């Protein structure tokens, strides 16, 4: 069922990504990796519906989305730039039960993110932290430049409670000064150095653009990972 949700906070993450925190009328909770629909209605009755990943566990009755502004995208542009704090949208969800981490698993977790594909994967990291879980996580985040890193404060300087989460940033266009790794796409060397070995039987989650997801999944298969433990979510 659709329900009204008031925008209570807007956080600028990067030049093109913004986190929007909504307070829905009622929300029973969700699992990290799930998404929800947002519906916008214009004064003339025109409606636009878009689906976005939930960026964090439910906290204080509030839900969060991190939205990447798409060039020419009517909904993402309006949500990132124009919807004022205090205004209402409509939400429906949560949706999805496959690409999720529920928090009661014990296997190591490998997260591979490309661009804004970090959103549902960081939700898993945040849920782990909220639960006080000791399950070891490894996160590899492929992004164009240091300025494009979403959640930079958390990823570069992890908060307390993220012990056991190893994070590696992989830049494709421009890297940090002094970095030994040249700017390039994710490769076998990255997964060999920073991912879990296949014989650890980790649960693997990949999210990002189509090309990134296809390439990352093939790399994991080439390294011997069980395809049944590789879950993907893609866009574009």
From TrEMBL:
Residues 1-101 form the FAD-binding FR-type domain. Its cofactor is FAD. InterPro entries: Cbr1-like_FAD-bd_dom, FAD-bd_FR_type, FNR_nucleotide-bd, MRET, OxRdtase_FAD/NAD-bd, Riboflavin_synthase-like_b-brl. Transmembrane segments: none annotated. SUPFAM superfamilies: Ferredoxin reductase-like, C-terminal NADP-linked domain (SSF52343), Riboflavin synthase domain-like (SSF63380). Coiled coil: none annotated. It holds the Pfam family FAD_binding_6. Keywords: 2Fe-2S, Iron, Iron-sulfur, Metal-binding. It comes from Glycomyces harbinensis. GO terms for molecular function: 2 iron, 2 sulfur cluster binding; oxidoreductase activity. This is Ferredoxin-NADP reductase.
């Amino acid at each position: 069922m659709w329900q009204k949700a008031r925008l209570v906070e807007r956080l600028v993450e990067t030049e093109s990504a913004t986190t929007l925190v909504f307070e829905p009328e009622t929300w029973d909770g969700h699992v990290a990796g799930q998404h929800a629909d947002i519906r916008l209605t214009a004064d003339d009755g025109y409606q636009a519906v878009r689906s976005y990943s939930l960026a964090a566990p439910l906290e204080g009755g509030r839900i969060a989305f991190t939205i990447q502004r798409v060039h020419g995208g009517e909904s993402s542009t309006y949500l990132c730039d124009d919807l004022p704090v205090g205004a209402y949208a409509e939400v429906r969800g949560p949706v999805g039960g496959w690409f999720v981490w529920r928090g009661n698993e014990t296997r190591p977790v490998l997260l591979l993110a490309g661009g804004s594909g970090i959103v549902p994967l960081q939700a898993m990291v945040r849920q782990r932290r909220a639960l006080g879980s000791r399950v070891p996580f490894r996160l590899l985040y492929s992004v164009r430049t240091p300025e494009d890193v979403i959640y930079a404060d958390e990823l570069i300087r992890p908060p307390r409670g993220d012990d056991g989460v190893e994070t590696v940033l992989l830049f494709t266009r421009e890297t940090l000064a002094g970095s030994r790794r040249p700017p390039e796409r994710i490769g076998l060397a990255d997964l060999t150095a920073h991912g879990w070995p296949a014989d650890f039987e980790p649960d693997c989650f990949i999210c990002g653009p189509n090309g990134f997801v296809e390439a990352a999944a093939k790399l994991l298969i080439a390294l011997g990972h069980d395809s049944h433990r590789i879950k993907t979510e893609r866009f574009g």
